[in-house]
Specification:
Two copies of one chain form a homodimer.
Chain A lengths: L1 H10 L6 H11 L5 E2 H10 L6 H13 L3 E6 L2 E6 L6 E5 L5 E4 L2 H14 L2 E12 L5
Parallel strand pairs in A: 4-6
Antiparallel strand pairs in A: 1-3, 2-3, 4-5
The structure holds a DNA duplex.
Chain lengths: 136, 136
DNA sequence: CTGCCGATGAACATCGTTGTCATCTAGTGC
DNA sequence: GCACTAGATGACAACGATGTTCATCGGCAG
């Protein structure tokens, strides 16, 4: 696993440091999105000495490399490990759990609309917010 | 027009002040999204004495009343006057122009997915980013 | 017209995030 | 192994967006 993490980091053009491995491992263990500050707090509480700046930089770097999804809520950004394929999200607003979705219907809609209006598509996003079965 | 603006404000439970009319008028004149700071700067430059705090408060209040759409880009939020019906967006990343879309396909997809996974839907968003005909 | 209460705005406080810089270390070449 | 160097770290400062305060102003109901 540590090896996998190293490869992932290497692929992103990043060195495999203890701090980065720690951050990646922490992200692997959860299906909800975390804030840099929260993650930093948890790592510190777990006895992992990692600087706040480093957590921010690591998360940003991983997000830039498309390893993480970024959610913006209430003025702060939360990160979450994600698949490497294009996908959409189903987010539980109570427990914060995130499920990834494929959506051919949406992809098709995007192509249709953009084509009809003469736009060249550079990207799109489609997310659903709700309350999952367990939380309701 | 001023009367319309007053009604709009009244409907939102807000008093029709000179500053709010000014902000609303400025928003009416553009189809791209503006930042509170930018709008404040422009109003000041145009000789309209409006406080930054007031611009923030007015935009937030109008957004809460669903008069404005809120976009988040690069850590700051941009506001844009929008129709009162639920809609999606087609955004030109070059000129910033925003077109509103209706999308039954998307609505249907949302219901399907949520239903299948046992979620109660509280909201969703679907936006397309691209380059419009004029800009490409 | 008058009074009340919401609205304003300048100054200040806060909070998430990014920049700085001296120090450290992963990973390469020997 | 070993030394070297570019990249990484982290304590701290700085920054920009937004929240708060409070004295003052003005919309609008009566």
């Amino acid at each position: 696993m540590a090896v996998q993490a190293d490869h992932a980091l290497r692929d992103a053009g990043l060195r495999a440091t203890r701090q980065r491995r720690t951050v990646l491992a922490a992200l692997r263990d959860r299906s909800d999105a975390v804030t840099a500050q929260d993650l930093h707090g948890e790592l510190r509480a777990a006895g992992e000495p990692v600087g706040l700046t480093t957590v921010y930089r690591t998360l940003t770097a991983l997000a830039d490399a498309d390893f993480l999804d970024v959610f913006v809520r209430e003025g702060e950004q939360a990160f979450r490990l994600c698949g490497d394929q294009h996908h959409h999200h189903l987010v539980c607003e109570v427990c914060g759990k995130v499920e990834e979705l494929e959506a051919d219907q949406v992809e098709q809609w995007v192509r249709e609309v953009a084509g009809r209006r003469g736009y060249q598509v550079t990207g799109h996003r489609a997310d659903i917010f709700g309350v999952c079965g367990e939380c309701s």
